[in-house]
Design a protein that fits this description.
With 196 residues, the chain is mainly alpha-helical. It has three domains: 6-99, no CATH class; 108-158; 161-193, no CATH class. 59% of the residues lie in helices and 8% in strands. It has helices spanning 6-15, 18-25, 29-50, 56-63, 69-73, 82-94, 96-99, 108-124, 128-133, 141-156, 171-176; strands at 163-167, 180-185, 189-193. The chain has a three-stranded antiparallel sheet with strand order 1-3-2. A hairpin with a 3-residue loop joins strand 2 (180-185) and strand 3 (189-193). Helix 8 (108-124) runs parallel beside helix 10 (141-156). The relative contact order is 0.05.
Length: 196
């Protein structure tokens, strides 16, 4: 390993050959790590490019490559236009899923929203097991509201009774409202229930 001091640099400039420089200095562990990081960065951006998140010109620019002849007129200029810089930022943001080694945690706003929705579902009468199986953040507002509305209406109808006996002539009307047929009874009556 080369010990870098002022005296060694003077000696280094006169004694050490190019080969020695590459062997002793460029094989430094830090430089090897930076090569690994550059390789990871380029490979992940290649995957992002394939997924349509970033264009090849931006990837080459970020890697410090001069690019092809087209780059001479676009990204390989002395100053990039503001629109190009903003587009590069947006493309880099879109590529984050490929560049990050760990999945980003949900923001505190998302966590608060998720917990709030879960609590609303519990208050509406859903069981904790049912709520655990739901993707509440993935549900749209309309879908979420419909689920709560259906649960509340099903509990309110007949004062929370889940089954009832109706005349056979009314079965069709109740099935249209979401009730399920359970069994036929004597005297032209039937048992129906709310879906679980």
């Amino acid at each position: 390993m080369v010990n870098v001091t002022i005296e060694n640099l003077i000696l280094f400039s006169t004694v050490v050959t190019s080969k020695d420089f590459h062997v002793k200095f460029l094989r430094h562990p830090f430089l090897e790590i930076s090569g690994v990081l550059r390789s990871y960065f380029d490979t992940q951006l290649m995957l992002a490019e394939n997924a349509g998140k970033v264009i090849r010109d931006y990837r080459q620019f970020w890697m410090g490559h001069k690019g092809d002849i087209e780059a001479r007129y676009t990204t390989n200029k002395h100053r990039l236009p503001g629109e190009v810089v903003e587009d590069m930022r947006a493309a880099y943001q879109r590529s984050q899923g490929y560049l990050q080694t760990a999945a980003p945690e949900a923001t505190s706003d998302e966590r608060i929203r998720e917990e709030f929705k879960k609590q609303l579902l519990l208050v509406a009468g859903f069981k904790p097991e049912e709520v655990g199986k739901m993707d509440v953040l993935g549900m749209g507002d309309d879908e979420f509201q419909a689920a709560i509305r259906q649960k509340l209406l099903s509990m309110m109808e007949n004062n929370g009774v889940r089954q009832k006996i109706v005349p056979v002539e009314e079965i069709e009307k109740h099935i249209a409202k979401g009730w399920e047929f359970v069994a036929a009874l004597p005297d032209r009556k039937a048992v129906i229930k709310l879906p679980a």
